[in-house]
Every structure is written in C-alpha cells, then in structure tokens.
Amino acid sequence: MLNGQHNFGELERMVTMTMTTQHVQSRDPDLRTDAFARTCARLRALNPDCPRVYAVAAMSDEGKRRWWRLSTGLESDRVDHLLSRSLQDLDNSEAAATQVATSLIHAIVGRVAASIVADGTAWDPGLENLWIHMDNDSSIDWAGVADETLRVAPGSSQYGRDGVVEMPCEAALSIWAAHRCLTSLRAVHSAVSRRAPIDSVRFWGLVGESILGATAYVPILAGEGETAAWRRGQGLLDAFVGAGVPVRARRKAHVRPRWSELDQALA
C-alpha cells in the first residue's frame, strides 16, 4: 500500500520535479555534505569491521585511482574485465554474467536500499551520478556519488534538516529512488547482456533480492527498526513493480556474488 492519500500515478507525478538534482544545486554545498556524511556514518556503523558494505563515498573527497564513472565505464572495457575476472573463478559465462550483474546491482540498489530501510533517506543512484571502485582483486568493493544531495521521507532522522530535499511520504521517496535506479540498471543490463548470456527475468529478480537482502539484514546489524525496514523495503519493491520491472520474479541462482566484505559482515 502506498499511502492513504495518494495513488501510485499521483505520486509519480509528484516526484517528477525531483527526478534530477539540477534544481537543488543552489543549496549550500556544506549543508548537503553534512547531511550525506551523517547518513554514511550511520551505514558504516552497521558493521565497523566492514564499513564499505552499504555506505557510499562522496567523490569530492576521493581521488580517481581505481574509480570509474558508471555512465562511461559501461561503454568501455570495464565490464569485459569484470567478466574475465569472474570467469577465472567460475569457468561458465552465464554464471560469470550473473556474478558481475549481482555486484553492480548491489552497488546501485543494495546500498541505497539499505539507506532507505534504515532511515528513509536516499542519495541519487542515477547513471550520471554513480561511480564504482575496484579492490586489489579487481572486484567491486565500493560505490561513490558525484552529487551528495539526499531525499528524505517523513520519519527520517534527517527530515527537516537543512541541505536535504523533503519528500511528501515514504512512497514518493521509493518511487523517486526506483526511477533513478532504473537509469543505471537498464544500462548495466544492456552492457552485460551484450557480452555474456544473462536471463532478463533473472536479472530483475536479482534486483528484488538485493532489496530484500537490505530489508532483512540492515535491522539485524542495527539492532532495531525491523518493522520500519520491512515497510520501506516492500514500498521500494512496489515502486519497481509499478515502474514495470519484475523484481518479484524468482529463478534459481547458480552462483553467489564475490562480496568478501558482505560475507564477513553477515557472518
């Protein structure tokens, strides 16, 4: 259920004005940075031993070594390198494609879903805003954003603070986040499927699994908030379904992602 006052179509029209960050660029950048820093500190604190599992970086604070912009990297040889690395472990092109897609999906969806279920906040996960970081093993271990502006729902600890964009309800936040994620996810699906076999239903099912994973594990790691996390997680799934993608579809997985930090965090 979205909200007692708005149907899905009405909410989609309400969030149209906040689909991109252009209209908030005039806001004080220090206030945007402070709000973003508070959110990422909360996500890092979920597991201090593995702080990069859910948090993202502000690219204004990072050098470019081992980083690549999602919008341009997908059209270069980055995906080829990721697939080649996975094939060294799996020796199966379909399994390798699923592994690479899963890692990219976590960078796009899993991290922002964790922020949404934890505190009703979301950065922009759109294609032009995301960056990807590689570890020493040529695997994805972090993500970053160029613009740090947060959208927040009522009930969030950030709601009412300076430097954020206030959304009218949780459903509006979910719809905005889902539509922004889709700009990245569709590009990833296209880039991977051009190079290796990956089933479309399976791909979108992985998106749903990423959201469900955050919904299940973030409250455990935080030690609180299970009811709110479940509600927000289901709302995000509803938003993807409303956008026309089958995130609740399921097909048997053949391989687990290479997320060493995630494995440690949930051990």
How would you describe what is shown here?
The protein has 267 residues and is α/β, with parallel strands linked by helices. The chain has one domain. The chain is built from nine helices and seven strands; from the N terminus they run H-H-E-E-H-H-H-E-E-E-E-E-H-H-H-H. It has helices spanning 8-15, 29-44, 70-73, 78-90, 93-119, 170-193, 200-222, 226-242, 260-266; strands spanning 57-58, 67-69, 121-122, 130-134, 140-145, 150-152, 164-166. The strands form two sheets. A four-stranded mixed β-sheet has the order 1-5-4-2. Strands 3-6-7 form a three-stranded mixed β-sheet, sandwiched between helices. A hairpin with a 5-residue loop joins strand 4 (130-134) and strand 5. Helix 1 (8-15) crosses helix 6. It is globular. Residues 1-6, 20-26 and 253-267 have low confidence and may be disordered.
What structural keywords apply?
267 residues, alpha/beta, three-stranded mixed beta sheet, 7 strands, globular, disordered N terminus, disordered C terminus
In short:
By secondary structure, the protein is α/β, with parallel strands linked by helices.
How is the biggest beta sheet arranged? Answer: 4 strands, mixed
Please tell me how large the radius of gyration is.
Answer: 17 Å
Strand/helix succession: HHEEHHHEEEEEHHHH
Domain tally: 1
Helix share bin: 40-55%
Strand order of the largest sheet: 1-5-4-2
Can you tell me the overall shape?
Answer: globular
| DSSP E strands, number | 7
Put simply, the count of helices is: 9
What value does the average pLDDT take? 86
Instruction: Return the structural class.
Output: alpha/beta
- Tell me the β content: 5-15%
